[in-house]
Design a protein that fits this description.
The complex is a heterotetramer, with 2 copies of chain A (261 residues) and 2 copies of chain B (318 residues). Chain A is an alpha/beta fold. Chain A folds into 2 domains: 5-86, Beta Barrel (Elongation Factor Tu (Ef-tu), domain 3); 98-259, Nucleotide-binding domain of ferredoxin-NADP reductase (FNR) module (Rossmann fold, 3-Layer(aba) Sandwich). Chain A has helices at residues 66-73, 107-119, 139-144, 164-170, 186-199, 237-240; strands at 5-14, 19-24, 36-41, 45-50, 53-54, 57-62, 79-86, 98-103, 124-130, 148-153, 160-161, 179-183, 203-206, 222-223, 226-227, 234-236, 249-251, 257-259. The longest helix of chain A is centred in the last third of the chain and has 14 residues, at 186-199. Chain B has a single domain, classed as Aldolase class I (TIM Barrel, Alpha-Beta Barrel), CATH 3.20.20. Chain B is of the alpha/beta class and 318 residues long. In chain B, helix 1 packs parallel to helix 2. Classes of the chains: A alpha/beta (261), B alpha/beta (318). Chains in contact: A-B, B-C, C-D. Chains B and C meet through strand 11, strand 13, helix 6 and helix 7 of B and strand 11, strand 13, helix 6 and helix 7 of C. Bound molecules: flavin-adenine dinucleotide (FAD) (2 copies), flavin mononucleotide (2 copies) and FE2/S2 (inorganic) cluster (FES) (2 copies). One flavin mononucleotide (FMN) binds at residues 27-29, 52-53, 67, 74, 76, 78, 80, 109, 136, 175, 202-203, 227-228, 231, 253-256, 275-278 of chain B.
């Protein structure tokens, strides 16, 4: 059964100008970092959102369009629906350190993953990229979890000046041969993908595609022959090797293939 | 007589001239959007693949949720989203090439919002040379501007069929709706008008489910078609009534989850059996599983091919 | 505003002039054969009882099995067995006397096989002075001699209604079938013809289930009407469409198992809510349980009566 | 779910000229003596039959009409359907001896009950009535179970000459104040009922009424306000006290009330 359960928003934490964390009056009994829920605004629409915390269920949402804007207008006490968890999440490698690479709104699942890594005593570095200081979300959460935090801003207003993937490379963050976990804009993911293959280190990458059902029925989220909602959203670097659409094309609500960005 | 060898059991079938390596078909609207995924479904064991229903122009469909599991099956109002015939033609061509070595035919599902429109889209899609065309006149989630589905009126259903036949040489299946009082009467009309075969059923209803806390329908569109285990008895009855009424092959769809359900459809006369919601419950692997269960049944009953038991259900009072 | 006291919550309703202590009604064909059992159902918490549909002459019905649980609900082809109007009149009179102190009204369900026959049986049954008469024009298991159910044709449905109205002063509910393309159109026809209210829905289909080992239908009759959880989304949609189309009270039936389901029916506009198959799943105590769940919902939402939320479902695209 | 399961008949044991035991290729995981199944002959009809043994599932069937006649024509290997178990069975009293009173085809549940009593070490007497010796079913089964067997025949061809209830009374079978369990023709049941009330001993009586659904939905099996298929078929003597129809009326397939016999 996957009917949305409607629950109240119990807390809204502003992370940046456009990103907030929404805490719901719900718990997910079993989930993995990287899995997502479908978040429903009754009468409007329903969209995939990564689980940032399973209990209380929280999502970190960037205001980018009609749905996320409407969500940002909701107040504590508003009713929203959710169903899930869906998809395949990150599988934390037991050996070696973890390097979490996150850009933009890709931060949600990383908060959850960092918490899980911290629980398991895995030494963790979080490389967080954004346009500017003001757009860097959840930095304090990562610090509270004991992660080593590396910031990168496009405008150099904080941390490394430039792309987060360049920071990873130039600051030697892969020297310790960590397993890399990445979530964020696709160009960043492509860079991480290349990095992992070149350095021959393990990597897992969370990919976004347009979703309708969320559970492997509609075919809307196809990435070549892969279904992002069910086979992903997290893929091993190897699984994405040779995937034609990765970094190149996504599909609109009609199913039409469109070049990325 | 000894037991029939498992691998000598023939579960292939011929549907309006198309040879299917096994009698299972993925139903329209389930994973049939892109050629890579359709090929994956074929490799997972489907005997034929059906595309998502395709219209002349691209359609984004309704906002989410468009499909939900409500406990008894799925409820959907996708709004017939599809990338339009131009893109779908390319997808079908790409799929055909990859499906050919597997021996798996492709069925192109089409729809339109006028009788003439059906003829148009049939002509366009034929350029991709799908093995069969399925004419979807039975979506329960059409815009309320159209008073009725095309599948609700024998005359209109017949007219659609005629226009499609005039515009293609590819054999056509007309897909019927259970949301009528006599599906057999509609079947007779479309066969009279030239349909080579019939697909039945499309989703049931529509139905409606509310979230009682917010008082909103759970689907963005409001009502939605019902599919899955909850509709199986209705689907079996429809297929039985159609097979009794007309003499063309029937692709039976609706609530099929297991080999048992495939057998049931064949017993009432189906030529091939579609699976949609079953993919949700048992994964893409459902086709392989169902074929194994079908073979187990045939072995137990010492049937060598589907012809050995097709249409042999005892029907007391019909 | 504080929480509404549980016992101040008013779940009574008025259905075509009959006052029901609570909005739940046992549906026709479930336990409604004899007065003692109907009284037991009332004592178990039903707000009204409905008799088994009654014809002029006694009918033994079909051989067994006449009703089975198939997993998604029940499937039934009872063959409208009933002891005939003479006996049923006595049962109703006996029941009325015992129900009066409980404040529980009785609904007499009637059927016939001709339009005139409906008038006849209405006149006879009226001698027992049931509180309401339910006119069952929608049994899906009628003999195949009748091409259609009465409920499948707006004109015929209207004519039945007219004949019944001419033969009784007791308010009538006309019970409709979901096995039509537009149940709203039928509702309009019977209201136009004088129906005081509408009951919807009767069982869905018919459906068909085979035993694949013997190749026999599991019901002796072959096909049978489907009820229970599997039909709820269809029933809700039908009730919603009817409430939008006409202005008479609707007794909503179909797949109601819980207080949640009662709320859903009231949200789309139902005046009272029938329970049939729910008796199988939750026992005769289902009425009391459902009422408790309904009250819990009302307390949570601070509703004091059913009027506070009746018909308030948000319907986006209808 | 209550769809009939179709299974093969594995054994047919002739008990008397008109009664046979049918053993099916099925097991009932949990059941009580006195509970029944619905036995289906596909294409014909389906009728209630008491469980005579749960594993392998067996019924003892008297040939009385079209259905039972058709069943008696079935051979080993024939497919029949069954669903159940249904109803409320006998609840064996832990204290004191058991007296099983059985007439005609009421023997099926008694075989099961005697087996259960024997398992529990309850001293058991079985009073078995029939028209003549030739019509006494299952006598050897009861003896094999170690029960004290008392026979009664209408024609005196074996055991007590007369009704089994008179045998019970006159042979002092209730002197040890047993709990009485009865199944058989309704006049016999009425006699047992009276006996138990008069002697103030516990009694449980299995009643038959015309059944359609078998699971409490159709109302066909009504015995006053009781549903025989669900509240029974076994009732305590007390529950039947004041029940108007008991011993007097049953209902036909139409639901019409008819005088008994
Ligand atoms: C698995 C997954 C997890 C996600 N997790 C998060 C998260 O934790 N936080 C967050 O802020 N965002 C997340 N997103 C992205 C989020 O779903 C979109 O930002 C949101 O749908 C935008 O909707 P909109 O109406 O606000 O903007 P729009 O203007 O409609 O769209 C903006 C962008 O979002 C994409 N988008 C729109 N609708 C969908 C859809 N139905 N499915 C997928 N993408 C869509 C569009 O392709 C477009 O690129 C996730 C997406 C996926 C696929
Ligand atoms: C709970 C219960 C347990 C039973 N257990 C046994 C048993 O173990 N062995 C056995 O031989 N018989 C048993 N019976 C009786 C058995 O069901 C009938 O003998 C059988 O139905 C007769 O069917 P027929 O077509 O052969 O005869 P018919 O000529 O149709 O009927 C003969 C008699 O059986 C009764 N009967 C017919 N149909 C039904 C029905 N659907 N439900 C109940 N009674 C019916 C009639 O009232 C009539 O008195 C039981 C009945 C009940 C109610
Ligand atoms: C999400 C979804 C989308 C569907 N889309 C289509 C469609 O585009 N065209 C069509 O003819 N049928 C469509 N259907 C109906 C199915 O093809 C099928 O007829 C129906 O679901 C019953 O089969 P099932 O119970 O196996 O799912 C869709 C069904 C679902 C669940
Ligand atoms: C065993 C059975 C017998 C029924 N008999 C009748 C009947 O005699 N008259 C009638 O109007 N409806 C009859 N119905 C239909 C119910 O009244 C009801 O409309 C239907 O079952 C849907 O409601 P439910 O899902 O709550 O059962 C019968 C249903 C069942 C299951
Ligand atoms: S979103 Fe529907 S298959 Fe992935
Ligand atoms: S047999 Fe149907 S209620 Fe007892």
């Amino acid at each position: 059964m996957s009917l949305p359960e409607t629950v109240r928003i119990t807390e809204i934490r502003r992370e940046t100008r456009s990103i907030s964390t929404f805490v719901l009056d719900a718990e997910i009994a079993q989930s993995e970092p990287g899995q997502f829920i479908m978040l429903w605004l009754p009468g409007l629409d329903e969209k995939p959102m990564s689980i940032a915390c399973p209990s209380p269920l929280s999502v970190v949402v960037d205001r980018v369009g009609p749905f996320t804007m409407a969500l940002h207008e909701r107040r504590v006490g508003s009713l929203v629906g959710w169903r899930g968890p869906y998809g395949r999440g990150f599988r934390l490698a037991e050996e070696g350190p973890a390097l979490l690479v996150s850009g933009g709104c890709g931060v949600g699942p990383m908060v959850y993953l960092a918490a899980r890594a911290s629980e398991q005593g895995i030494p963790t570095t979080v490389a967080l990229g954004a346009r500017s200081t003001a757009a860097l979300p959840c930095a304090s959460e990562f610090q509270a979890l004991g992660a080593n935090l590396v910031l990168a801003t496009d405008d150099g207003s904080d941390g490394y000046h430039g792309y987060v993937t360049d920071a990873v490379r130039e600051l030697g963050l892969i020297d310790a041969r960590p397993t890399v976990y990445a979530c964020g804009p696709e160009p960043m993911l492509v860079a991480v993908h290349r990095l992992c293959l070149e350095a021959r280190i393990g990597g897992q990458i969370s990919v976004e595609r347009y979703m309708k059902c969320g559970f492997g029925i509609c075919g809307q989220c196809a990435l070549d022959g892969l279904l992002v909602c069910q086979d992903g959203p997290v893929f091993d670097v190897q699984e994405l090797d040779g995937v034609r659409d990765f970094g190149h094309a996504h599909r609109s609500a009609t199913g039409r293939r469109l070049p990325l960005r | 007589m000894g037991h029939v060898e498992h691998d000598k059991l023939d579960i292939s079938t011929t549907l309006c001239g198309a040879r299917l390596p096994n009698a299972t078909v993925i139903a329209s609207g389930i994973l049939g959007l892109t050629h890579e995924v359709m090929v994956r479904v074929a490799k997972a064991g489907a005997g034929a693949v059906t595309t998502k229903s395709c219209s002349l122009n691209p359609r984004p469909g309704y906002p989410n949720p468009v499909v939900l599991d409500w406990g008894g099956g799925l409820i959907n109002a996708v709004g017939l989203s599809n990338p339009g015939v131009e893109v779908m033609t390319e997808e079908i061509q790409a799929a055909k090439e990859l499906l050919a070595p597997l021996g798996v035919p492709i069925i192109a599902s089409i729809f339109a919002d006028t009788i003439y429109g059906f003829g148009n889209i049939a002509r366009f899609i034929s350029e991709a040379s799908p093995d069969l065309i399925e004419v979807n006149i039975s979506c329960p989630n059409i815009d309320h501007r159209y008073q009725h589905m095309f599948a609700a009126d024998p005359y209109v259903a017949g007219q659609v069929t005629r226009h499609v036949k005039r515009n293609t040489d590819i054999p056509i299946l007309v897909k019927l709706s259970p949301n009528v009082t006599s599906i057999a009467a509609i079947a007779e009309a479309v066969v009279e008008a030239g349909a080579d075969g019939i697909t039945a059923i499309n989703s049931l209803g529509p139905g409606l489910i509310l979230d009682i806390e917010t008082r909103h329908p759970v689907l963005a569109h409001g009502p939605g078609g019902v599919s899955g285990p909850a509709v199986r008895p209705i689907a079996v009855r429809c297929v039985q009534a159609i097979c009794r009424a007309v003499d063309v092959p029937v692709l039976a769809v609706g609530g099929v989850m297991s080999g048992r359900d495939v057998v049931e459809m064949i017993l009432v006369g189906a030529t091939a059996v579609g699976i949609g919601t079953g993919v949700h419950y048992r994964g893409i692997d459902v086709f392989r599983q169902v074929c194994r269960e079908l073979r187990d049944y045939m072995r137990r009953h010492e049937y060598r091919s589907l012809d050995d038991f097709r249409g042999t259900a005892a029907m007391p009072s019909l």
